[in-house]
Write a structure and sequence with these properties.
mainly alpha
Length: 249
């Protein structure tokens, strides 16, 4: 991951965007602190999402294309341990990248005279890391049966729909009846609800932290989703067979 320099590029790009943002008179705000926090955290979420899907979906296909999967499977580890290790590696690097992004946004905000509710910021970061755990598990799950490009594409579509469409399904259901309403309800219950992990607005406006009971319930929801997709990844990989000729092709 360090050699690929993905994180460095996104970190520098985020820093450049924030510098440009505080230097411009955007809509007459003259680099207002709230605007900097809002855009900075939004970019942080987008960049972390891209990293999580790309990194996790290429872990297993990369081992297979290089033929190093045989060396891994020859070790005294189970396939579940292999899947769990790949997920943990992807999640840890993405969570570290997200931490760097948060530090950068916080540094620019404080330099502009702004401040944060520290407890709310910590809650937001923890929930963001939980969301990244789910994203990483989804990427790993799809990569067990697809190559990197296909797995990343499907994961982006699924998670993008979960981010953008799922929160609006109740609004759509108010205008639908019959089969369409049932289908929307099915999708609402089937797709992950990433919006519950998003505390950006509370951080931007300096609100108090959420109730710790609710916070714990959201964390448990994320843990269950992560466990589900890791389990599905194991199911998709436990009986997969490899041959050197097929991998070379």
């Amino acid at each position: 991951m360090i050699r690929r320099k993905d994180i460095y590029v996104l970190f520098i790009l985020l820093g450049a965007l924030l510098v440009i943002l505080v230097s411009l008179n955007v809509f007459g705000l003259s680099g207002a602190v709230g605007y900097v926090k809002d855009i900075g955290l939004l970019i942080t979420w987008v960049f972390a999402w891209v990293l999580a899907v790309n990194i996790s979906s290429r872990e297993l296909p990369q081992e297979e294309s290089r033929g190093t999967i045989f060396q891994l499977l020859a070790k005294p580890i189970t396939r579940f341990e292999l899947i769990l290790g790949k997920w943990l590696g992807a999640w840890s690097i993405v969570a570290t990248a997200a931490l760097l992004f948060y530090v950068l946004v916080a540094g620019v905000t404080i330099a502009r005279g702004g401040s944060f509710n520290v407890e709310t910021l910590c809650q937001g970061f923890i929930l963001h890391c939980v969301a990244l755990a789910v994203l990483s598990a989804i990427g790993i799950a799809f990569s067990t049966r697809m190559n990197h490009d296909a797995a990343a594409t499907v994961a982006f579509v699924l998670t993008g729909a979960s981010f953008l469409v799922v929160p609006r399904i109740p609004e759509f259901m108010a205008r639908e009846v019959g089969l369409r309403a049932d289908l929307l309800m099915f999708l609402y219950n089937l797709l992950p609800h990433f919006e519950v992990f998003d505390m950006r607005m509370r951080i931007v406006h300096g609100y108090d932290p959420v109730n710790w009971g609710i916070f714990g319930a959201v964390v448990c929801y994320g843990v269950l989703l992560t466990a589900l997709f890791v389990f599905l990844a194991w199911l998709g990989y436990r009986d997969k067979r490899f041959s050197r000729g097929s991998l070379a092709n």
